[in-house]
Each structure stands twice: as C-alpha cells, then as structure tokens.
C-alpha cells in the first residue's frame, strides 16, 4: 500500500500509487469456489486433473486488483503532474517505481538532507531542510505514535545544518537532543539551551519592549483600552527618563493622575506581571533573547520548558516570546527561526494561529505543529499547511478530519493511514513534491525522555500473590 507503479507505453508512462488492494471478482467466482469446496470435500478419490485446470482456477481465485490513483506522467525521465490519459490495458508494461527513482524525476528541493528513515523497505530517505524553510509543517497521529520522536530528529537535523529553532516543550523532552543514546554530548550539545520561564528565563521590561508588553496586557491579561492608553503614557514617561523597571513602574502607577478604576486596573495587571517571575530588574539575571539568535552562522536551539508553568504564565511566555521574535525579525536583527510547538492549543490563543501561519511566517517564523488532536487545528489552517507527517490514528473521527484537510485525496489518505504499522508515517505535501510517501522512521539516538510517567514502572516477572 502506498507503493508506486508505472504503466509504460512507448515514450511515456503513467505514475500510479496503490491505495487499496482487493481480490478480483469475476462473474460466477463465488459459485466456482463453492463448487470446488464441495467437490474436494465429498469426492476424495478424484485427484486426476489432466488439463491442469485447478491450477488456473486457483490462480484466478488468488488474483488481486491494485486500486491506484494516477499521480502524473513520466516522459524523458521528467515527471509532470498531468494525469489525463489512460495507458492501453493490453499493451502497456506495469512495473514497480521506487521512491528514489521518482525523486530523481523531479527537481531536488535542496541539498541539506535530514535523514529520518527509510522508504520502499530499505532505501534511505532524507527530508530536505529546505522543505521546512519558509513553510508550515504538521506532525500528527495518535498517542505514542512517535510524533515527538520525529520532531526531535527534524530539530537536530536543522541544528546540524546551522539553523535556529525555538521549542515550546510541554513534557521536558527536547532538552536532550544534544546528547546521544548513552548520554554523551554530541557536536550540537553547546547549541542547545534549555530555559525555564521565571527561573533562568527572565527579561527586563526594556528588553521585552513596549509592544510585547502591551500585546501581553491586552491579550493575555485582557486589559481594557482606556487603562492600556494610560499604561502606554506611563511607560513613555519612564522610558524618557531612562528609568524603566518594575520598581519605577509601580511607583509611577501610584502617583499617576487618573481615575480610581483605571488605577485599579493598572495595579492588578502590574501585580500579575511582577509576580509571574518573567521579569526582573536585575541585570545579571536577564536573558538576552536577541543575543542568543544573533550568533553568526552557528545555529542554536532554545528549548522553553513549559512543564510546571501555570496555564496563564504559559500563555504569557509564549506571547511574549513570539511578539518579541517578530519584532526582532521585522528589524532584521535576528535570522529566521523554526518554531516547534507541541499541543499548541494549550497555550496559543485562537487568534494567534492565523497570525503564526500568515503574518509571522512572512517575517520568518516557520512553525512545526506537533499534536495528537488534529481537530485542535482549524480547517482553515490546514489549507495553509505545506507538509504533513501523518501517523496512524486509532480514532476514526480524527482520521476523517485529517484526511479531509490534507492536501492529498481523501481516499488515499484514509486507506493508507489506516494500514500504517507503528513507527511509520505518511508524508504529504511540499517535502515530497505532492507525491505521498510512506516513511518508516528510524530510531533516534538520544536518551529516552518525555515518556508518560507510570505507576508500575519496573517490568515484573510474575507477581504471584495468593
Ligand atoms: N521510529 C522509532 N523508532 C524507535 N522508537 C520510536 C520510534 N518512534 C517512536 N519511538 C518510541 O516510542 C515512544 C513514543 O514516541 P513519542 O514520544 O515520540 O510519541 P508521541 O506521538 O510524541 O506520543 P505522545 O502523544 O504521548 O506525545 C518513545 O519511547 C519513542 O522513543
Ligand atoms: Mg509527544
């Protein structure tokens, strides 16, 4: 299933992809099967078959039909997406087409391969890093299907090619990508930085900037417009005096001439900002976001650990980091970044999704969404997605939803994904030139982490209690 065939005729061949397999149903075959069963059961003595009829009948009974979708036409070794003709049923030659040969027939997307697994039972498969660059990617599938595993492979691959990434890590599993299976440091180890918001990750108000802070106030903390305007005035005044800090902000709100409701609103938000632990006035404890991303050409991976962070703080961190990154990108102070977002619906406001895939992508934030809840991503967004790595789903509703949203035809996706073995995914979209490929994902050489905590952790031989 998912394999490619070509039906060749003179100078051109039609590329076909198998998406279903069934037995050949010829007229009267059931009657024939029944007759033979009865015969073989009742007439033991009859073994003679001078014309070899039973062999032919067995062959016919075992014949299969491969149901295919036409994917394009190969002529002179080049593939075109045209599939508007039919080869002759009698004269064409049907043969297997390997994914690597198929790949040779289209222009390569790039040279920076990331080895992720194998195709066609054995040949190596690389995702070009260029296929993720400037693109939106989704990795989805049921629980424990291997999504994070694949995301880590892509992340390490990008890092090896000198790219910059940010990871919103919910389960503390990405911090170990700089280590190999035995826990030894690999070449990329120094480029990986794990930060826990409120602990290592603290910003000064000035570094966060007015825009990010007002975004935070209005979106995460739902500050009304009137108070927000007063806040901006206070900020400008402090900035003008070059005296921007939590302490001076508090003092300024105290002295500010405004109505009591506004002051209360200002104070309430100020206290949330001050107590969330994300901001500090201390110079030594500030994290330099811009500095991290402006190291020339080395690449880097900032893992923001969101486990153990309250939902409100999660949203604040995520919004703060995103709006700060967009600001830095806008002024070309940092290179484009890849963003790995696990279960983003847990910390991303609805309106942010569209922002991420449209506006932020233009500035240079290229997101890889990882989720086991495909319905958490809106249909509108799927239409903008360039690459989908699709693992098996145990839930039919999820599968229908993804297959409708994906860029390949629903029939193929549904039929193929349902039969996917573990550790195997269907790759759709730009990375494979819209020719869906079944990919068997490699093991990954890093310490196991992020596995769900268990109560019964040790495997027990046999627990006999009586
Ligand atoms: N291709 C693979 N080869 C070997 N082991 C794998 C492979 N893919 C996944 N695993 C292992 O299977 C387990 C589950 O994988 P992973 O954590 O990536 O799943 P997940 O889809 O992210 O799960 P969850 O929905 O819980 O986040 C992990 O222990 C991982 O190491
Ligand atoms: Mg996971």
Word description of this protein:
Strands 7-6-16-15-14-8-13-12-9-11-10 form an 11-stranded mixed sheet. It has helices at residues 29-42, 53-62, 99-104, 147-160, 205-220, 225-240, 246-255, 260-275, 289-293, 311-330, 350-357, 359-363, 379-382, 396-405, 410-418, and strands at 4-9, 12-23, 64-75, 78-80, 93-97, 113-119, 123-128, 137-140, 164-169, 192-195, 300-305, 337-342, 365-371, 387-390, 424-429, 437-441. The chain is of the alpha/beta class and 466 residues long. A hairpin with a 7-residue loop joins strand 15 and strand 16 (437-441). Helix 5 runs antiparallel to helix 6 and helix 7 (246-255) runs antiparallel to helix 8. It folds into 3 domains: 4-43 and 54-97, no CATH class; 113-196 and 288-441, P-loop containing nucleotide triphosphate hydrolases (Rossmann fold, 3-Layer(aba) Sandwich); 205-275, no CATH class. The protein binds adenosine-5'-triphosphate and magnesium ion. Magnesium ion (MG) binds next to helix 4.
Number of strands: 16
Q: End-to-end distance, in Å? A: 50 Å
CATH-assigned homologous superfamily of the largest domain: P-loop containing nucleotide triphosphate hydrolases
Per CATH, the architecture of the largest domain is 3-Layer(aba) Sandwich
CATH topology of the largest domain: Rossmann fold
Average predicted local confidence, pLDDT: 87
Low-confidence stretches: none
The unique ligands bound to this protein are: adenosine-5'-triphosphate, magnesium ion
Structural class based on helices, strands and sheet pairing: alpha/beta
Walk across the major sheet and give the strand order. 7-6-16-15-14-8-13-12-9-11-10
Q: Treating each run of at least 4 consecutive H or I residues as one helix, how many helices?
A: 15
The proportion of residues forming helix, as a percent range, comes to 25-40%
